[in-house]
């Protein structure tokens, strides 16, 4: 059994290039506290501006959620990485969407709109 040395075929220049390969990638730079605060403040300003212009995140309906979760369940069920606990959790979420979908389709009685609060 041959043991390879870690430096075989590598010189100092190759090692430095490997260590510094992410230095110019903005996603992997280490930010200072001030930069983090500035990013958070700019994101908050963008969120406030988006709300003022009427950009509202549309919440999917119960039926849409059920359909999406059903597809996700069928897909995940056939994956090698799936395990019974995760499948059960996904099924419970899908079943919750199904119950809410059925509840929203059921006609409510007139008295359900008049609840007395004391």
What are its keywords?
118 residues, mainly alpha, 0% strand
Q: Could you characterize what this model shows?
A:
- The protein contains four helices and no strands.
- The longest helix is centred in the last third of the chain and has 22 residues, at 84-105.
- The protein has a domain at 62-106.
- It is mostly helical and 118 residues long.
- The model has no long low-confidence stretch (mean pLDDT 77).
- Helix 3 runs antiparallel to helix 4 (84-105).
- It has helices spanning 12-19, 33-52, 62-77, 84-105.
Contiguous low-pLDDT stretches (5 residues minimum) are none
Number of strands: 0
Mean of residue pLDDT? 77
SS summary, helix count:
4
Tell me the overall shape: elongated
Order of SSEs = HHHH
Q: Distance between the terminal alpha carbons, to the nearest Å?
A: 83 Å
Could you describe the largest sheet, including whether it forms a barrel? none
Q: How much of the polypeptide forms β-strand, as a percent range?
A: under 5%
Computed CA radius of gyration, to the nearest angstrom = 27 Å
Summarize, please.
With 118 residues, the protein is mainly alpha-helical. 56% of the residues lie in helices and 0% in strands.
List the helices and strands and how they pair.
Elements: H1 12-19, H2 33-52, H3 62-77, H4 84-105
Helix pairs in contact: 3-4
């Amino acid at each position: 059994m041959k043991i390879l040395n870690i430096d075989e075929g590598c010189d100092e220049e190759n090692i430095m290039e490997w260590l510094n390969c992410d230095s110019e990638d903005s996603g992997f730079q280490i930010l200072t506290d001030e930069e983090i605060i500035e990013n958070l403040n700019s994101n908050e300003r963008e969120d406030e501006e988006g709300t003022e212009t009427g950009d509202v995140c549309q919440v999917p309906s119960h039926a849409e959620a059920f359909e999406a979760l059903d597809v996700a369940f069928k897909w995940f069920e056939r994956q090698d990485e799936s395990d019974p606990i995760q499948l059960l959790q996904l099924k419970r979420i899908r079943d919750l969407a199904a119950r809410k979908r059925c509840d929203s389709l059921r006609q409510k009685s007139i008295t359900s709109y008049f609840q007395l609060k004391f």
